[in-house]
Amino acid sequence: MEILSIIPARGGSKGIRRKNIKPILDKPLVAYSIEASLKSKYITKTVVSSEDEEILEVSKKFGAQVLKRPIELAQDETKTAPVMLNVMETLESEGYKADYVVLLQPTTPLRDEKFIDSAFDFYFEKQKQGYDSCFSVFEMGITHAKWRVLHNNKLEALYDYRNRPRRQDTNEHYKLLCENGAFYALKWDTMKQVKDFIGYNPAPYIVKGMIDIDTIEDFNKVEQILKNKK
User: In 19-112, which residue ranges form alpha helices assigned H by DSSP?
Assistant: First the structure.
């Protein structure tokens, strides 16, 4: 079975400058995902996609294969799926095709090879039930009274709170799940069909303890966790 992992690592991070190669403890951030990918018992090919020469050199140093990303796929507004498809199409032109593709974002360094292998074990079992893809999430709880916080910190109700039902009077109880950015996997052909890294019928892999680094506060928190582990 051939499984390709794609690690997209752009050079132009705005929240934390040069985030993907910023040292966290004794090595650059992207190295954690590369090492986890290379140690996985399932992943057979690890590719880092970047437009940045320094990131490509660092990634090669830690054992990844690298692919120079077109500059038009390295803009602030660029989404991840087109970057992955670019990697896949480039590899296809060289005669390579995998059975599965997994997205490993470099901003989740707490994800190790044990996490990856456990997630694949879960996904392969769920495939037998008809699920076509898998991604990791954390659970927020179960509720029938749903709200979300908008970018301006205003609250928006996702139910009719003026006619609020009692919990025991409704069957509409929701388990709230949030993507944590650590793991997305699906078949190669499904990815080519949907042009996204989540299929039509995904299975959520519920875990605790993953942090997706967006801010310097996230970075410092993860660094402290890694220090404590050492």
Answer: 29-39, 53-61, 80-93
